[in-house]
């Protein structure tokens, strides 16, 4: 595994910061919204992380991590449009929740992959992208995404029904 570049360290530190901001935003508000300070900070840092990922080529060229970075940018932008313009009316917050939550999933896939391929130094947990351990993490994160979205949507539904009373 190549050594970490300065851009790689910046990307990694900002990625950790983004995930912490996502946790705080969801903890405080129930979901991520650009109109909340924590949500806005999360989205800004997420865009920086995704953009910096596009400049990292330690795997030999354009690859899955770059595709995930583009998907992250698309999900963040799509979620913002849904939040700002309510493109699907009352359903917009639900789609916004799926989009913003997808950015977390798109952070986690390359993060765990890189972590498992780098650590422990000299004897990493995995040596290939086909590792069953890695696949288990990816499936686990997908499951957490689905559960997280369901929980957030139930909170949205609860808030919506309380507003109608």
What does this structure look like?
It is a single chain. This protein has 165 residues and is mainly α. It has one domain. The chain is built from five helices and no strands. Helix 1 runs antiparallel to helix 2, helix 2 packs antiparallel against helix 3 and helix 4 runs antiparallel to helix 5. The longest helix is centred in the last third of the chain and has 33 residues. The radius of gyration is 17 Å and the shape is elongated. The mean pLDDT is 94.
Features:
elongated; mainly alpha; 165 residues
- What count of structural domains? 1
Give the averaged pLDDT, no decimals. 94
**What's the total helix number?**
5
- First CA to last CA: what distance? 58 Å
Portion of residues in beta strands equals under 5%
Oligomer: single chain
Structural class: mainly alpha
- What is the number of strand segments? 0
Unreliable segments (pLDDT under 50, ≥5 consecutive)?
none
How would a crystallographer describe the biggest sheet? none
The percentage helix is: over 70%
Q: Shape from CA axes?
A: elongated
Rg of Cα set? 17 Å
Q: Topology as H/E string?
A: HHHHH
Quickly describe the structure.
By secondary structure, this protein is mainly alpha-helical.
Describe the SSE topology:
Elements (H helix, E strand, L loop, with lengths): L5 H24 L7 H17 L10 H22 L6 H27 L13 H33 L1
Helix pairs in contact: 1-2, 2-3, 3-4, 4-5
């Amino acid at each position: 595994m190549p050594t970490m570049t300065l851009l790689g360290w910046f990307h990694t530190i900002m990625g950790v910061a983004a995930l912490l901001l996502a946790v705080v935003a969801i903890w405080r508000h129930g979901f991520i919204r650009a109109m909340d300070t924590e949500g806005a900070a999360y989205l800004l840092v997420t865009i920086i992380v995704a953009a910096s990922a596009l400049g990292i080529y330690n795997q030999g060229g354009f690859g899955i991590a770059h595709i995930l970075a583009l998907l992250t940018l698309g999900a963040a932008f799509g979620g913002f449009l849904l939040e700002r313009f309510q493109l699907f009316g009352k359903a917009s917050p639900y789609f916004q929740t799926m989009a913003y939550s997808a950015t977390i999933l798109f952070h986690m896939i390359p993060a765990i992959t890189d972590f498992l391929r780098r650590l422990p130094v000299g004897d990493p947990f995995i040596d290939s992208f086909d590792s069953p351990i890695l696949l288990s993490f990816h499936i686990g994160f997908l499951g957490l995404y689905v559960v997280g979205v369901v929980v957030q949507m139930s909170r949205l539904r609860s808030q919506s029904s309380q507003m109608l009373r």
